[in-house]
Design goal:
Blueprint: H1 10-21, H2 26-33, H3 37-50, H4 67-79, H5 85-96, H6 102-111, H7 127-140, H8 145-148, E1 151-160, E2 193-201, E3 204-211, H9 217-233, E4 240-242, H10 252-260, H11 278-289, H12 297-309, H13 313-321, H14 323-332
Parallel strand pairs: 1-4
Antiparallel strand pairs: 1-2, 2-3
Helix pairs in contact: 1-3, 2-3, 4-5, 5-6, 7-14
């Protein structure tokens, strides 16, 4: 069957009928409107049969699922967001007795705006965490950029020799699954990694220190004296130091040292990496490292330090400038998760 052409507009069909009422023949109408004679003839015949130029309702294949079944599918999917399409199909068939494919379930869910997506990985927030996050946001919502510009942000992270632990994707064609460019190389025991402690502010990156072995409170205190204090002093007398509630950070030894050094420490809510802009700086650093070809830990350390020092001040400034929006997002979500 030949494909249908573009459907005529209502105005054009009405002009055809009007010209026909003026006793013009099919050929003259077709020549005037630059249409085929068959198109003109069908339009006039349809008008004579129905008394209208509008198309009759088209009746396609009837829906397999009733409106009630569709509502049941919606309730199942919203009640258990991790329920697969196949499980929903089995549930629907068990209740209504009507066999339904998983693909039909997916189409139904798509029509109501539900799509299968990879869930975001976020820390588990208990009620006490949400209350602490909300209290932090309420206390900081009136702070201006001058306050945030004097905060020294800190954190530790692991950097793998062979890329991140996250999910990666490649563009490939059928049959290319095992081409070198389409596989993710792995090595025994992970190939090695380095742990680093770093700090940053709106003025740029601060000191970066590699952590040898397992860090305890005494090692953390050495890092604070050797790397944190020099970076903090560059921010002036109004500087505020931020670190999370890791046991090493809140130990008696660490607390006593910070008090002795007269360091003003920001009260920090647990489970709140989304409020720390250095978390995003780690992500930027690791993406840059993926472009560098390193084959051993010594090369990795050199490249990490080089890329850290090359981080533009504008990048750090932009991350710190997002703090008012981060605080606002926590308040809007009642202490819950944010997009950051």
């Amino acid at each position: 069957m030949a494909p249908h052409g573009k459907e005529l507009s209502e105005d054009l069909k009405k002009r055809i009928v009007a010209l026909h009422k003026d006793v013009l023949g099919y050929k003259k109408i077709a020549k005037t409107l630059k249409l085929s004679c068959s198109t003109v003839a069908k339009t006039i015949q349809r008008f004579n049969w129905t008394g209208s130029t509008q198309n009759r309702p088209r009746h396609g294949r009837p829906k397999k699922l009733s409106a009630r079944a569709q509502r049941h599918i919606q309730r199942l999917s919203l009640g258990n967001r991790r329920m697969s399409a196949a499980s929903i199909a089995a549930e629907v068939e068990g209740v209504g007795g009507q066999p339904v494919s998983a693909q039909t379930i997916r189409r139904t869910l798509h029509q109501i705006g539900l799509h299968g997506c990879r869930p975001r990985r976020k820390p588990l927030l208990k009620m006490m965490h949400k209350k602490a996050r909300k209290q932090f946001a309420e206390d900081k919502q009136t702070k201006d950029m001058d306050y945030w510009n004097h905060v020294l942000w800190s954190d530790e992270t692991k950097i793998n020799l062979f890329g991140s632990d996250g999910v990666k994707r490649v563009w490939r064609q059928p049959g290319e699954e095992y081409k070198d460019k389409c596989v993710l190389p792995t090595v025994k025991h992970g190939g090695g990694s380095v742990m680093v402690w770093g700090c940053m502010s709106a003025a740029g990156t601060g000191e970066l220190q590699f952590i040898e072995g397992t860090m305890n409170a005494n090692m953390y205190c050495d890092i604070l004296k050797q790397s944190m204090i020099p970076s903090l002093r560059r921010l002036g007398r109004r500087a505020v130091f931020q670190h999370d509630n890791d046991p090493k950070h809140t130990s008696k030894t660490t607390t006593a040292l910070l008090k002795k050094l007269r360091v003003k420490v920001m009260d920090w809510p647990s489970m709140s990496p989304d409020l720390n802009p250095i978390e995003h700086l780690w992500g930027i650093l690791k993406r840059k490292l993926e472009e560098c070809k390193v084959s051993n830990i010594h090369q990795l350390r050199d490249v990490v330090m080089e890329e850290w020092k090359r981080t533009p001040v504008a990048t750090c400034e932009a991350l710190v400038n997002s703090m008012p929006k981060r605080v606002k997002a926590v308040l809007e979500n009642d202490g819950g998760h944010t997009k950051y």
